[in-house]
């Protein structure tokens, strides 16, 4: 009787941000040794590998994505753009066929809580967003409740998605939604002994 095979889950792939941070950490550890020659060699090794993989990715993108495919959103390359790892690699090497606005929209589509773009400053890398959930939504679904914990969770999920698709975004600013108070109709009572409807005036709810 054969022994049961052990299934080992594959390791989780790092995204571009995590991989970059890991490389920086390793280079910092080397710098603490004080050996400048070793540090310079390690940095050169990183540059050579980046150039090598970047050239390979550029050739893949060129073969998979024809101009017609990029215009219609069809083809094998378009099918890969929803993959977070592939998109992060293409953006890292400046090979992503989509512009920043399209990639921001793609990233936000993957976020559970709906948000809308207020504006993006390419010079500073600051992206301003606003919750697009209805003001009357309940707190249970995270829409319009104004809970700090809900807003923080939404911002974290947005930042995680943007890190994969749009590494150009350096900071996310969530702007608060201002809800105008509803108008109440207040009817005045007509004077005693007179007929007719009372005068109606509009008042703002407190």
Describe this structure in words.
With 206 residues, the chain is an alpha+beta fold. Helix content is 45%, strand content 14%. It is built from seven helices and five strands; from the N terminus they run H-H-H-H-H-H-E-E-H-E-E-E. The chain has a three-stranded mixed beta sheet, with helices on one face. Strand 1 and strand 2 (126-131) form a beta hairpin. The longest helix is centred in the N-terminal third of the chain and has 29 residues, at 36-64. The termini are far apart. Mean pLDDT is 74; it is low at 135-146.
Helix and strand arrangement:
Layout lengths: L15 H16 L4 H29 L2 H6 L3 H5 L3 H9 L7 H10 L5 E7 L4 E6 L16 H18 L5 E5 L7 E5 L12 E5 L2
Parallel strand pairs: 2-3
Antiparallel strand pairs: 1-2, 4-5
Helix pairs in contact: 1-2, 5-7, 6-7
Overall strand count: 5
Largest sheet: 3 strands, mixed
- Overall mean pLDDT stands at 74
Q: Residue share in helices?
A: 40-55%
List SSEs in N-to-C order. HHHHHHEEHEEE
- Helix/strand/pairing category: alpha+beta
The coarse overall form would be elongated
N-to-C terminal Cα separation, in Å? 78 Å
Q: Radius of gyration over alpha carbons?
A: 27 Å
Q: Which spans of ≥5 residues are poorly predicted at pLDDT below 50?
A: 135-146
Percent strand: 5-15%
Instruction: Specify the number of helices.
Output: 7
Strand arrangement within the widest β-sheet reads: 1-2-3
């Amino acid at each position: 009787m054969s022994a049961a095979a052990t299934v080992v889950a594959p390791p989780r792939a790092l995204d571009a941000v995590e991989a970059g941070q890991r490389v920086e950490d390793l280079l910092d550890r080397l710098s603490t040794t004080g050996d400048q020659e070793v540090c310079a060699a390690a940095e050169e090794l990183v540059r050579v590998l980046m150039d090598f993989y970047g050239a390979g990715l550029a050739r893949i993108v060129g073969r998979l994505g024809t101009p017609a495919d990029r215009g219609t959103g069809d083809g094998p390359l378009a099918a890969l753009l929803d993959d977070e790892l592939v998109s992060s690699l293409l953006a890292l090497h400046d090979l992503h066929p989509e512009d920043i606005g399209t990639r921001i929209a793609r990233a936000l589509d993957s976020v559970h809580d709906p948000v809308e773009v207020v504006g993006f400053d390419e010079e500073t890398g600051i992206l301003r967003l606003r919750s697009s959930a209805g003001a009357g939504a309940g707190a249970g679904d995270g829409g319009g409740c104004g809970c700090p914990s809900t807003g923080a969770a939404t911002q974290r999920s947005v930042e995680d998605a943007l890190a994969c698709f749009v590494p150009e975004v350096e900071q996310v600013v969530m702007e608060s939604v201002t809800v105008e108070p509803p108008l109440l109709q207040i009817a005045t009572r007509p004077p005693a002994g007179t007929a007719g409807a009372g005068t109606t005036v509009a008042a703002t709810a407190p």
